[in-house]
Amino acid sequence: MPDNKFSIGDKVRILNERMEGVITCVTDEKGIVMVEGMELDFPLSQLVRYSEKEKTIYENSVRKVKKRSAESGKQAVKSPWMGGQIHPAEIPCIDLHIEKLLDDYSHFEKHEILPYQLKMFQQFLDRCVLDQKQKFYAIHGVGDGRLKNEIRNILSHYDFIRHHDAPYSLFGFGATEVVIGKGDGEQKTGDRETGRQNRGWRGKYVFFGFLLTLHFIILSASAGSSQSIRAYFSYARFLSPADGPYIETYLSVIGSTVIFSKNKDGKWQGGTDIVMIFRKDTIIAYIDKFTLLSPEISDSAGDKPNFLNQKRISLREGDYIIELEIKDPLKPEKVFAHSEKISISFPEDKLVISDIEPVESAVKTATPGILTKSGFDLIPYVSDFYPESSVKLKFYAEIYNTKKNSVPAGGFLLSYFLESAETERKQERFARHSRQECRDVIPFFGEFDIEKLPSGNYNLTLEIRDKTNNLLAQKKIFFQRSNPAFAVDSLAISEDEIKTSFVTQYSGTDSLAEHIRCLHPICPLKERDQIEIMAAQRDLQVMQKFFLGFWLARNGSDPEGEWRKYLVLVKKVHKHYATSIQKGYETDRGRVYLQYGEPNSIQKSEHEPSAYPYEIWHYYKIGRYSNITFVFIDESLAGNRYELAHSDMIGEIKDPKWQLRMYKRTTPFSDIDEDEKGGHYGGKAGEKFIIPK
Fold first, then answer.
1. In whole angstroms, what is the distance from residue 79 CA to residue 62 CA?
2. DSSP secondary structure code for residue 503 in this structure
3. CA distance 472 to 644
4. Angle formed by the axes of helices 540-554 and 559-577, to 10°?
5. Spatial CB neighbours of 74, under 8 Å, sequence gap ≥ 6
6. Which of helix, strand or coil describes residue 88?
7. How far apart are CA 351 and CA 244, in angstroms?
8. What does the DSSP assignment read for 113-179?
9. Alpha-carbon distance 346 to 318, whole Å?
């Protein structure tokens, strides 16, 4: 549990965030934490004082290496990448064995251990980069190689990092040596980074997230200085009946990350030099070079305001490459760049919804300007992340071509709602409807109160349907919600509510505890912890309150109906996937089925020569991810004990050598550099993975 007794000066980390800082002010409910020069507010429940275990992970990690070095008789290790003698006593080291990371990990499910190890590795890597360490060791053990493969996959996304096996004399075969050096040109593209790399001691960080309709990029850099530039960039596409398509771009620079200097009026002001280019094939369709200045402030020691730039750019329909370059003129050697493909298309023969523009605020227009739409000045919300402090989600969109495409005279129904990004299940408590009449352009402004929206990944979805409920058009936008302080208890469910609800039919603690346990596959981690506590305490009223609150949060109008639909699936997976020692929802196949839904195809093989029995599941779409595959293998040969061996779904186990594991039944030994197992008579697994049926 978080320690809520804090003092000014305490070094803390923030739960669910890769952040750490020092407390500068503390009250009964919140703490103000200095993070990279910025003071941020966090509830005390989100703050954790650095424990001795965590100090060991980084600050004292070199002791273990020093001890191993002394035992091996080696005083120094020579790095083939950096050259020279590097003393082990100066090299950080992280041991990723779960028992070394946590004193108690009994609350973890089997499939949760690897993601936690990778999270701790990423935090350790970031810390070493920020502290300008030249190298470090990551101890992962030998095992089945999954952890080693995953951390090397992470490292492959940095072109200023090299990695290889750590010295055998120190760690045997169970560790990787990571060398942080100079960038050398074009950066590799991966899940976390993209764009051109600065030449210098180390490269920039560019974090980004792709959305289906509106794109957000977080530009960030740290190159040998504690001062980092951060800027948020997004865009949305609209259509003007008179002038044709146009794109709006939104750029918000975080003032505290820019160097401020005195201007000619004696005021303090910061700025960034921006270059924005749209290319169509090899032709530049639009280019703009400008300096974006912050508001003036009188005191350089005071708060430094963020500053926003918005542009409207008319472009013909077609495919473009957008190139963005940003730098601080007081640090001209640091140039950050990003490029990506975009498409602009508004077909006249279809109903079309513009991109959804998240909005921070809207006020009636006094003097029309670039922020004006439909009589309101809309200040854009330039991020896809809504922290706990955000209580409203506001947005703007436009609908086109309703008069041109045989929409009935009575108009149509516009539905807008929130849904799970992973499963696309509609959050019934966050669903609204609006009847619209046909016009040339239909502007729409909507909002949701998200104070009681649990933490998670969501889509904001807009749908147009006719009177017979046929779907005519749809648009989605992804966002993340962090709301750790919101728990089921915050719904303030009373005893009277329990007495009049469906949970009264579950009056036995054992049966109710089992119903609650089966929620594991669809629970966030915080609620899983609650489940384990309740299962041990067996307090009927607490369990009833949790169970009712859980389903009310997912379907406020019909919580029992939502539970009944889920119970059908639980019984189904138990029938098909239960083993002698596991209930259906506890198995890997049962968990995946309940978490992501029914796969579009399942290819089974129980008698393929040389292979263990296996199943390959394929999903056309999971949330905003397409073409997702899961591989399950039964190495026990005892029947129905399939374990997840590999998946290309974000957050799941990834093992590029899964075929080696599958065919290990007849080939127990293999080349450690071999990625695929070929040459087996009748082997079909690789083909089934690539070409689902």
1. 17
2. G
3. 39
4. 100
5. 88, 167, 169, 170
6. helix
7. 16
8. HHHHHHHHHHHHHHHHHHTT-SEEEEE--STTSHHHHHHHHHHTT-TTEEEEEPPHHHHTTSEEEEE
9. 10
CA distance 260 to 526: 41
Contacts of 464 (CB under 8 A, 6+ apart): 351, 353, 399, 412, 413, 414, 415, 471, 472, 473, 474
8 Å CB contact between 683 and 667: no
Report how far residue 125's alpha carbon sits from residue 512's, in angstroms, rounded to the nearest whole number. 43
Residue whose C-alpha is closest to residue 35's, from 18, 49, 51? 18
Q: How far apart are CA 656 and CA 144, in angstroms?
A: 12
Distance CA 378, CA 395 (A): 9
Where the chain has pLDDT below 70, the residues are 1-4, 15-19, 35-39, 50-90, 130-132, 157-160, 181-228, 334, 405-410, 423, 484-492, 525-526, 624, 665-693
pLDDT at site 284: 84
Q: What pLDDT sits at residue 216?
A: 62
Give the Cα separation of 215 and 374 in Å (integer): 23
Greatest distance between any 2 Cα atoms in the chain: 87
Predicted pLDDT of residue 194 = 26
Query: Residue 665 is which amino acid?
Result: R
CB 609 within 8 A of CB 681: yes
Positive or negative, the Cα torsion across 455, 459, 464, 465?
A: negative
521: nearest Cα among 603, 578, 596: 596
Nearest to 603 by CA among 579, 581, 577, 629: 629
Q: pLDDT for 181-218, tens place per residue? A: 643 333 333 332 222 222 222 222 233 322 333 456 65
On whether the pTM is more than 0.70, the answer is no
DSSP assignment letter at 73? T
CA distance 440 to 455: 38
Could you tell me how many residues make up the chain? Answer: 693
Spatial contact of 221 and 204, defined as CB atoms under 8 Å apart: yes
